[in-house]
Each structure stands twice: as C-alpha cells, then as structure tokens.
Design brief:
Distance between the termini: 59 Å
Helix content: 40-55%
Number of helices: 2
Strand content: under 5%
Order of helices and strands: HH
Largest sheet: none
Number of strands: 0
Length: 68
C-alpha cells in the first residue's frame, strides 16, 4: 500500500509537538490556545467549527438498580 504523504506529515508534526510538550495534554492545549491568540493578533479570523447535526441513532439507557 502506498504511503500517504499528507498523513505522514501530519503524524510527524503531531508527534514532534507532543514530544516538545512532554506528552502533557494540558501543555499541548495551552500551546494551541496561545498560538490561536497569536494568529488572532496578526489579523487571522479564527472561527469555531460548525455545530454537529443531531445523531439519528438511538441508544438504550438502563437505570441503575435502586438501593434498598
């Protein structure tokens, strides 16, 4: 199977970024927020993703047994 160059680059950058942050999720997101604020300050328009449509699948939720 041929390697997808775009996905390989995404995985490489993601791994590099995580390594720089010590694989600390809080630090990764702190850096992402800081980078977003820098882009806003440079005049970039940052928008939130479109809201997800309601899912049409149904799920059964059982009530836990009542304590006596």
């Amino acid at each position: 199977m041929k390697e997808n160059e775009i996905l390989s680059e995404i995985h490489r950058v993601r791994e590099e970024s995580a390594r720089e942050c010590g694989y600390d999720v809080k630090e990764i997101f702190r850096r992402m927020r800081a980078q977003t604020e820098q882009l806003k300050a440079q005049g970039w328009q940052v928008v939130a993703p479109a809201p997800r449509e309601k899912e049409t699948a149904f799920s059964l939720r059982e009530e836990p047994p009542k304590q006596k």
